Give the backbone structure.
Amino acid sequence: MESSGGTNAETGDGRTGPTEPTNAEPGSEADPGLASRLRYLVTLSRPRFWFYLAGPVVVGVAFAAESVPELFGPVGLALFAYFLLPANVLLYGVNDVYDAEIDAENPKKEAGGREARFSGERWVVAVVVASGLVGLGTFALVPVGAWPWLGAFFVLAVEYSAPPLRFKTTPLLDSVSNGLYILPGVVAYVAVAGRQPPAAAVVGGWLWAMGMHTFSAIPDIEPDREAGIRTTATVLGEERTYAYCGAAWLSAAVAWAFVDNRIALLMLAYPVVVFAIYWSNVDVDEAYWWYPAINTVVGMLLTMGALTRIVPPASLLEALR
């Protein structure tokens, strides 16, 4: 759940759009070859964040399933496969295309870094578009009740970075729109259970995502301010952004308490960690990279807890004897 501020290249008539693409031919110096292209796409898709979209699918299926076979149904597996890689290529690809200008100054995009820097290659745009078109096929896999959630994901995934809405440059909306990260889980839940999830679970998940996004924006405060980009984090400043994240995560825990007190207690780990970071000497640029691991552990605990409804721990222990 990465935040990266940015501006668009301006066209001759004043409209904004992605940076002008290059016209590299296969085999030229500007075209590095298939292996390098694949490595670039993997980097572009942010592997550390893959489970930010695919993880909620696992959690959604685990809470929706009522039998072991439902855990491994074809629809759930197809959704997991799409949200593991193609959806990340779409989400971060759109981000990189429309943030090319500001990313030229973003330290996270330096050569050899953890993120890719888009330089206008047309083949990258083609792959990003193809990832979106493949995603549209998922509508045929899920019931009509999941369509609004799936549609909301694609709208938010694109319009977070792309004009005309470009939520990422509007304070508060940049944070609120990042509820998109829980939508794959909602879609999976509806697809498997055949009913809508508890409203409090959606609210709790959305608030969690808001906190995650805004925390990830803290390292970008200075680059965004230099570029004239207004976000929730640039408006609040670093200290108040910590408070905002803590408040979002505390509110998420309260919402989850209406679903399950054990989940609410688990969610309290987030405000505890963010306040510990604030009161310590830990560099936020380093702490930023802790959260994929923290989210993986939390997601694993949520999934294991959900699975106990299907396979009681006593039965599992008996089977292992």
